[in-house]
Write a structure and sequence with these properties.
The complex is a heterodimer of chains A (194) and B (507). Helix content of chain A is 25%, strand content 36%. Chain A has helices at 13-21, 32-37, 49-58, 62-66, 77-80, 180-193; strands at residues 2-5, 26-29, 40-43, 72-75, 83-86, 91-92, 97-103, 112-120, 134-140, 142-145, 150-156, 158-166, 169-172. In chain A, strands 1, 2, 3, 4, 5, 6, 7, 8, 9, 10, 11, 12 and 13 form a 13-stranded mixed β-sheet that branches. Chain B is an alpha/beta fold. Chain B folds into two domains: 2-232, TIM Barrel; 269-500, Alpha-Beta Barrel (TIM Barrel), CATH 3.20.20.70. The longest helix of chain B is centred in the middle third of the chain and has 14 residues, at 315-328. The chains are: A alpha/beta (194), B alpha/beta (507). Chains A and B meet through helix 1, strand 8, strand 9, strand 11 and helix 6 of A and loops of B.
């Protein structure tokens, strides 16, 4: 059973739609026990970092996420919140990845909206069988810089982390649930290989 | 063309040399970090940071400082000077330095060059070719070799090198115009060339641009205030008038792999697709889900569904449809038509829409866009602008084009950006349904004045229209309806055409 963390941060429907298509059992929950007991956890997220962190705090989920031992998949904002800190409203985040989230340069159109390439710099079960330089769908104004946990990177003015992995924590900056067949493969990898 | 300010570091300070002679050192600032931030603020799209101590010593001396600079700014950095070891390259690249420049080591050790290209790719490894009297110089320009630069370039070509930085040492730091021929010759060989040395004024930049080089590194001319970076950066800051003479140089070299998007748009009434559609492989083109899936399989990058009836009675039908689309289609889609309240948006997003397109209410009550953006995030708020040329400008119309609000469309677009729109969909009432091409002037006027993604709409009649919208109209996405629906142009054909014209497109 996969627990999808419900913390009032955006469009969960698109994630559940993919899981339905893949015939995978899931629950949407903000109950700490249900999350602790899950086989796997999905941590989606659209919106701003600060209200999202406040919501996690209100639901007593910060420690639950930090202490998760099962395979964990962060998506979009769900990747950024894994960092120590986000420039967005100067928000203290979960501190799982020792990195600070930055805003794209004003020289670029922000948000980045659309399909961009991911090139893989390390192997990970999450990206198993996905060819280099495939396109995925991104919508983001902030990014995680390249660091030792970067698995895939993408260029938007600067190269940034588009896929990361630290132990059981996996995350993508793009929306696999909106990235066509290749995106579904990422979710399937998470279900089957992580 | 990419404009790249240079920061040369010696003894931790920001300096310039003349013709590469260490004796000519002039300190411009004691704090290179401050200089980098200033360049970023002034609109630089990339920085060129040279470790002069490193170049002299043959190993990186200021590596940590350069990484620290890179970490404190949001634009890419390329660095060079004394880079001779895999470990230095590894450290730089892993810390987020965009491109690493090797010069001496590339010339002396071809196998090394082969290995780092293999390991880090041709995007990240740049070869620095420093030239004195047509011959390659090495060791921080202290040593001339007998290698002709074109011979060296031919070797690099054979190794698959793509990016080079070429410097005419005799010109460097002299402000007497660059050696245009070097850049041109290397460009003609198929390299992506960045020219350094001697770039002194706007006219140099224009001439360089005409030779087809990818970028120019500018050092002394900026420090000596011969060139104002703000004049040549993209017009992103609101306090700079859009019609400022010398601008736009820095836009096309932008190192991004984000693609342009092709978006079919479907009009919906009572849950069905309007307009007769006829495709061989599609049984029920009246079903928006089947039609949407058809386009998605063909390679559409996004879909838009507009409820053209948009009456309150029809809402539940439309919501049900949105839910079915979300369940069956795995690419992003936008919905619109008659959105007037936050509850409308909430219902559409809850049913699985990725974005909503808002039209009339944005003009009547701009505050609504602020509220919507705050509540749902600006990434899902698309403002749709219906514009029509009136005298010498474009004015915003509402109610399906029946009512002129007398608002200036460009000003309105800027206002929407400030207030929280995430994307703009620009319709031209003059071109709608004419198939005479998008209104390029309108699109460009808006694209140059706002920093948001722009979707072009109205007027597409042939594939060339899309190319023009992307290149001249400077838009990020292009929408069409009947052109696709009637099978006059297929998405795969359109995409192949755009790819063959060097537009970044998801195949």
């Amino acid at each position: 059973m996969i627990s999808i963390i419900d913390y009032n941060a955006g469009n969960i429907a698109s994630v559940t739609n993919v899981l339905k298509r893949l015939a995978c059992d899931y629950i949407i929950t903000s109950n700490p026990d249900e999350i602790r007991k899950a086989d796997k956890i999905i941590f989606p997220g659209v919106g701003r970092a600060k209200p999202a962190m406040e919501e996690l705090k209100k639901r007593s989920l910060i420690k639950v996420v930090q202490n998760a031992k099962q395979p964990f998949l962060g998506i979009c904002l769900g990747l950024q919140l894994l960092a120590d800190f986000s420039e967005e409203d100067s928000t203290k985040c979960l501190g799982i990845i020792p990195e600070a989230i930055k805003r794209f340069s004003n020289n670029l159109k922000v948000p980045q909206i659309g399909w961009n390439k991911v090139s893989f710099t390390k192997s990970s079960p999450l990206t198993d069988g996905i060819p280099d330089n495939e396109y995925f769908y991104f919508v983001n104004s902030y990014y995680m810089p390249i660091n030792e946990f970067t698995v895939g990177e993408t260029k938007y003015g600067i190269s940034f982390s588009s896929v990361i992995q630290k132990d059981n924590f996996y995350a993508t900056q793009f929306h696999p649930e909106k990235s066509g067949k290749i995106g579904e493969k990422i979710i399937r990898n998470f279900i089957e290989k992580c | 063309m990419l404009i790249i300010p240079a920061i040369d570091i010696m003894g931790g300070q920001c300096v310039r040399l003349t013709q590469g002679k260490f004796s000519t050192k002039k300190v411009y600032n004691t704090d290179p970090l401050k200089v980098a931030k200033q360049f970023e603020k002034e609109g630089a799209e990339m920085l060129h940071i040279v470790d002069l101590d490193g170049a002299k010593k043959g190993k990186m001396i200021n590596r940590d400082l350069i990484i620290q600079i890179q970490k404190s700014i949001n634009i890419p950095v390329q660095t060079g000077g004394g880079i001779r070891s895999i470990q230095d390259i590894e450290t730089c690249i892993k810390s987020g330095i965009e491109r690493v420049i090797v010069g001496t080591k590339a010339l002396e050790d071809i196998n090394f060059l082969k290995e780092i290209i293999q390991r880090y790719g041709t995007d990240r490894i740049v070869v620095g070719i420093d030239i004195k009297n047509g011959k390659v110089a090495i060791n921080g320009w202290q040593r001339e070799t007998t290698k002709d630069y074109l011979d060296f370039a031919a070797i690099l070509k054979g190794l698959g090198v793509v990016n080079v930085v070429v410097t005419d040492i005799a010109r460097d730091g002299t402000l007497i115009s660059p050696n245009f021929e070097l850049g041109k010759n290397l460009t003609d060989m198929g390299f992506k060339v960045i020219v350094a040395g001697g770039v002194s004024n706007l006219s140099d930049i224009r001439t360089l641009e005409s030779t087809g080089v990818q970028g120019a590194i500018i050092g002394k001319a900026i420090y000596e205030k011969k060139i104002n970076l703000r004049d040549i950066s993209r017009p992103r800051r609101r306090n700079i008038p859009a019609d400022k003479g010398a601008r736009g140089f820095a836009s096309s070299g932008n190192p991004s792999t984000l693609t342009k998007r092709i978006i079919p748009c479907m009009d919906i009434a009572n849950g069905r697709t309007v307009k007769g559609v006829n495709f061989k492989n599609l049984k029920d083109a009246g079903d928006p889900v089947k039609l949407g899936k058809f386009y998605s399989d063909q390679g559409a990058d996004e879909l838009i569904f507009l409820d053209i009836t948009a009456t309150i009675e029809n809402r539940p039908t439309f919501y049900k449809l949105v839910r079915r689309i979300a369940e069956n289609i795995n690419i992003p889609f936008t919905v619109g038509g008659g959105i007037r309240t936050l509850d409308d948006i909430n219902a559409l997003l809850k049913n699985g829409a990725d974005k909503v397109s808002i039209c009339s209410i944005a003009v009547q009550n701009p505050e609504f866009i602020r509220q919507a953006s705050q509540k749902f995030g600006n990434q899902c708020i698309v403002v749709s602008v219906d514009a029509k040329r009136v005298n010498n400008r474009w004015e915003v119309f509402i109610k399906g084009g029946r009512e002129n609000t007398k608002n200036d469309a460009v000003k309105f677009a800027k206002q929407m950006e400030e207030i929280g729109a995430g994307e703009l969909l620009i319709n031209s009432l003059d071109r709608d349904g004419t198939k005479t091409g998008y209104d390029i002037d309108l699109l460009r006027a808006i694209a140059e004045n706002v920093n948001l993604p722009i979707i072009a709409s109205s007027g597409a009649g042939k594939k060339e229209d899309f190319l023009e919208a992307f290149i001249k109209g400077k838009v990020d996405a292009a929408l069409a309806a009947s052109l696709f629906h009637y099978g006059e142009l297929s998405i795969p054909d359109l995409k192949n055409y755009l790819i063959s014209n060097n537009i970044q497109i998801r195949p």
